[in-house]
Amino acid sequence: MTPRVRAESRPDVASATAARLLRHTAQALPDGTGPDPGRLRIEWAGPVGADLPDERAVQAACGLMHVHGRATGAPAPLAVDYASVVTGVLAALGATALHIGRARGLELSEVRTSVAQGALLTMGQYLAAATAQGGSGPPDPQAPSASAPEAGDGLATLVTSDGVRAEIETLDPDAWREFWAGLGVPAAVAGRGWGPFQQRFATAVCPLPEALRQAANRCPLARLLTAADRAGVSLLVVGSDPAPAACPDPWELAPESGPGVDGRARIPSPRAATLPARAAELPLAGLRVVECTRRVQGPLTGHVLRMLGAEVVRIEPPGGDPMRGLPPLAGECSARFLALNTGKPVIEADLATAHGRHTVRTLAAEADVFLHNWAPGKAERLGLTAADLLRGSPALVYAWASGFGGAFGERPPVGTDYLAQVHSGLAAAVRPADEPPAPSLMTLTDLLGGLVCAQGVLSALALREATGRGSRVHSSLLSAGALVPRPADRVRWTPLDRPLRTANGYLLLDPRARRSPETLRPLLGGADPVQGAARFVWHTSEEWRARLAEAGLAATPVLTDLTELTRDTAFRRAVAPPDRVTPYARPYAPWEFS
């Protein structure tokens, strides 16, 4: 029987992240009286019935290594404490929501979360896609099978003839074709790469035609920059320095101070302050959020606020958000879309028309929070800025989730995940020193950015509970990426620090075995443990775990099939399986309030 492995430390990175964010929240509140960290509990495994003694074990068991490693051919750890940072933000969210709930009269005393729950939340879209049932549309042509070996179809990073690594981004297929035409690539060949390039956000793989990689490799960086500039494609050089280019605050919060707001008199919320009796455990029950968002960052913010009890109403274009049709389908809608937007009533509005913009203003006037992740300048063009909406609703919280904030001035790159990873240094930090720097194709900053925006919103709501004033909140993918701690130099690993291939899967050694390789020598016939790591393929994972247990060691099986999360009894309290109402699996809310 495999021995239980005691966690060798508390989740210190998660605790430190939560403490930092709660301090930032308290700075905006009167007399700095913010949420009480003493009401917060953070664990490694939480409701997951498995031994998860550290960050690496959580990544292995919950699917992060599987998704991050898809593009490079085998499960691979993120070389930063990503799950812990996510959990730190979730912990701050839980503590701040509890603070708001108590101010609104709820009898709440404590909130608990865990690093495993944080990790599972980041798997939400991938898990939904892997378990989608009942769809009538075509299968996803780019998605790797959940039960197949890792895809290994490559990253999107290009390498120039002068050895520079570059990341490009565009959401426009015409700009994509024009960029490649500038490198001498025929339109038909460039067109074959558009689907995989766009789908990489959903699948974490980018099987570009080899002809495109070769075309980039024949050209110097200067030519790629010229082609990108002419086509309107964003391009950033992928450096090897893991340090962030900037360290902005997680979010910026500016209290409303216009006419009628003097900081003394409370402004009534547009909605009733009383809580529905049936929602006694949900701190944001009775509050309404109106979101006009797309892709991942903004919808995830609304999703988190909904899980905390708020009513979240989506504004979508006529005919609905195009992402609703992204395969695979769960019933009649994209599983990935539903993973972030289920439970949100939808109102369609054409923002290009006066009537559509009037609809937004009307909805915002009846809301507690208005949230968008529009590109810079769009709110001004629409006449839907914070000043426009707060003028008639001074108690409104107006939240904008951007890509880069003001880091690039008036001409920022496209504000998407992978360029944010590059500029924040994560593209170098997430991989060890013996691998070329490249963004993870798991959407790290989109997910973290959505959570950070939600914490900014809760900070503004906590301020409103104290003063009655609304606020403007701004966060970015860049500010979220800067939250992730990383060493000054890229980490160096031995084979024992990576998942070990066995006869039927992969194992991750426990912290003691990784730290003291000599403990493995007797199990490897006296061979040097680092050199003998390849011998793990001689036996099954189950056999190796039994052998390790006899030596007082342990290993975590590395999840390589996300559907297993719905069958493994260890996850029954953390993951909901598909059912007739919700035809895809999803993680339960990552907090327990009491």
From TrEMBL:
Residues 131-153 are annotated as: Disordered. One of its GO terms (molecular function) is transferase activity. It comes from the Bacteria. The keyword Transferase applies. InterPro entries: CoA-transferase_III, CoA-Trfase_fam_III, CoA-Trfase_III_dom3_sf, CoA-Trfase_III_dom_1_sf. Keywords: Transferase. Residues 143-152 have a biased composition (Low complexity). Pfam families: CoA_transf_3. This is CoA transferase. It comes from Streptomyces griseosporeus.
